Structure formats: structure tokens, C-alpha cells
Amino acid sequence: MDTKKEELELLLQASYSLSDTTLQAYDVYSKIHTVKLQYVLYKEKVGIRPGQISRLVDGHITKYGLPLEHTAQCTVLLKFGSLTYTELQSFISTIEDILFKCPAKRETKPVYKQDEVQIHCYDEYSAFIDKEGILSQQKARVRLFCLAFVTGSPILEIGLNDRRRQGKEIVRRKDILPMYTERWIRFEEVEFHSTVDTAAFEKEQVIRLSPPDSCFFEVRFVKLHCFYKLSNHYCYF
């Protein structure tokens, strides 16, 4: 009798994502670190926000209309676990790199009653500090994610506080309160998603892309260089 377990294979796609890591009971004495590979589908539904309930009660439905929101429906595809946290983090980093490089195209032209674009920015930093409180090594990166619900096939532009654009800000007439910044950053070792027009970024320092429909994907990440001291010598990575 063959007691070998069947292997399950799943082709990774750009529309997949990983959940946050959690701790679950493994046995009576220990716990296990877990993460889920999931597919998230968004649907446009009527949603009432807390600040709009009073308007609806007062009979202003026809004047203001019912608000719309894009709700997420999550389907868990696979679940992974490890008793060692560092092993699971290494696995997560590998899967995230693969998802980042997966090709994604805007193949449909959906129609939404309410367009919406979300930009999420995450700063990641890790360091090693010994028992004497001395920092020996560190690394950091900035990750930018996009989630778009737009009608047709528009081109989306994301402005950055790139130091090369300092003094070239464009203020539109409809901007009642112009947005200025004094915090300019020098970007180094930037990697973009396949949907980004890299030539436009090099020329104008603006991220220009046609985002996949209702897909939470990573647009780009930036590695930040750090110095660390090792045996009285400063190294650069």
C-alpha cells in the first residue's frame, strides 16, 4: 500500500496575496507561526458609514444618495506553518518577491458607479542589537501598494517626493489647499512592477501605470542603504 501523500501544486498569480502572520496552538506546550495564501475579490456594494446614518434617518436619501463601497471577499487557498519564526519570514519574503514579479495586465474595461484609488505605503526596518545595546547591522526598505477601482482603462500617475522634482511641483487650480512638502527623499535601487512605465519615471520622476482591476499589488519598493560597524570597520550594503 502506497502511504505517500499527494503533493498539491498551485500556480502563483499577481492577484494572490499573503495574510499577516499569526500564532496558533500546535500542541499542549507550544505554538506555531502560520500564514495564509489568499485570493481577495472585491465587489461594489451599498454601504452606510456612521457619519451618514443621521442623514438617511432625516429623509435625505434622494438628496445625498446611498454611499457605495468596495467590500472584500477573501478565499483562503493554502495555509503554511512553521515552529521557527525566521524560517517562516524567509518563506514569506520569497513568495512576496515572486508575486511582485508576476505579470499583471488590465485585460477588462469595468464600469464602476464610484471610482476609487487607494495607495498604501509601508516602511520596513530591521536591525541586530547585541546585549550591550550596540547596533551591528540594519536594513530598511519602503514598499508602495495600489488598489484601484476605475472605469475603463485610464493611466494612473503617482507623485513622489523625489529630490529630483524639488522646485517642479505643479499646483492645479482646483486644489483649494495646495500640498507642499519640505521632506525630499533620494530614492536608490528602485524596483517597479511590470505595469509601471519605467522610462516615464526616469524622465519625469512620476510613477505612471495602468493598474490591474481591483487587485491589491505592489507597485514598487525602495531599498535604503545603511552603514554598520563590524570589527572597527564600516561596511556598506
3D architecture notes:
By secondary structure, the chain is mostly beta strands. It folds into 2 domains: 11-102, no CATH class; 108-236, Immunoglobulin-like, CATH 2.60.40. It contains 4 helices and 12 strands. A hairpin with a 5-residue loop joins strand 2 (22-25) and strand 3 (31-46). Mean pLDDT is 77; it is low at 59-64 and 226-237. It is found in: Cytoplasm. It comes from Angiostrongylus costaricensis. This is FERM domain-containing protein.
CATH-scheme architecture of the largest domain: Sandwich
H/E topology pattern: EEEHHEHEEEEHEEEE
Please state roughly what percent of the residues sit in beta strands, choosing from under 5%, 5-15%, 15-25%, 25-35%, 35-45% or over 45%: 35-45%
Distance between the first and last residues' Cα: 54 Å
| Mean pLDDT across all amino acids | 77
The CATH H-level homologous superfamily of the largest domain: Mu homology domain, subdomain B
Assign a percent range to the helix content.
Answer: 10-25%
| CATH domain topology of the largest domain | Immunoglobulin-like
Shape: globular
The largest sheet is: 4 strands, antiparallel
Please work out how many helical segments DSSP would assign: 4
